[in-house]
Every structure is written in structure tokens, then in C-alpha cells.
Design brief:
By secondary structure, this protein is an all-alpha fold. About 75% of the residues lie in helices and about 0% in strands.
Length: about 110
């Protein structure tokens, strides 16, 4: 009968007892890795959307710069024509004198160099 007592004390541990401890370590690590992946994915999404916004702003600023150049060119043409007209028209001469419109030596033509 003593052998049965020894057999009970020297029994090998069940695999069922070991399984929860190995899953207990794996589950928190898996959850942590999923959380890290979600955070990195979110950061990647934000970076990409911010990059798209910057690209749109660059295009808009280029359009504004082109509009500003066009307006500047048109104003130079108007000023040149007004100065030319002021030699023969007294009203144009009055406007040129009132607003002190002058032509610089480097802009002898109404078309701006681009």
C-alpha cells in the first residue's frame, strides 16, 4: 500500500496546470503588441493626412502667388498706359500728378519679364 502513496506524491504535473500559466504570459504581451501596433498605425495615418494637407496648402500658395503676379502685371500695364496717356490727356495728367505715379528706368515697357 505504501507504493500507492508514493505514486500519488510523485505524480507528474498535468499539462492543464501549465497551460494557463503560459497563456497568462502570452495574453498580456499580445494585447500590448496589438496596442502598440494600433498606436503606430494611428500615428502613420495622422502623418499621412498632415502631409496631404501641406501639399494642398503648397498648391494654394502657388496659385495665390500666380494671381499676385498677374495682378501686379496688370497694374503695371495700367500705370504705363496712364503715364503714356498723361502726355496728351489733362485728366490723366492730373491723376498721375495726384498719386505721383512714376515709371522706373528698368520698366520701360508694360510687359513684365517672367
Amino acid at each position: 500500500m505504501e507504493t500507492s502513496n508514493i505514486d500519488k506524491n510523485t505524480e507528474m504535473p498535468n499539462n492543464r496546470d501549465e497551460a494557463p500559466s503560459s497563456q497568462g504570459v502570452f495574453l498580456p504581451i499580445a494585447i500590448f503588441m496589438i496596442a502598440v501596433l494600433l498606436i503606430l498605425g494611428w500615428e502613420l495615418y495622422l502623418t499621412k493626412s498632415q502631409s496631404l494637407i501641406w501639399q494642398k496648402q503648397i498648391v494654394q500658395r502657388e496659385q495665390l502667388a500666380n494671381q499676385a503676379r498677374a495682378v501686379q502685371s496688370d497694374l503695371q500695364k495700367i500705370a504705363f498706359n496712364l503715364i503714356t496717356l498723361s502726355t496728351t490727356n489733362p485728366d490723366a495728367k492730373t491723376i498721375v500728378e495726384k498719386y505721383q505715379i512714376k515709371q522706373s528706368p528698368d520698366s520701360l515697357s508694360p510687359v513684365q519679364k517672367r
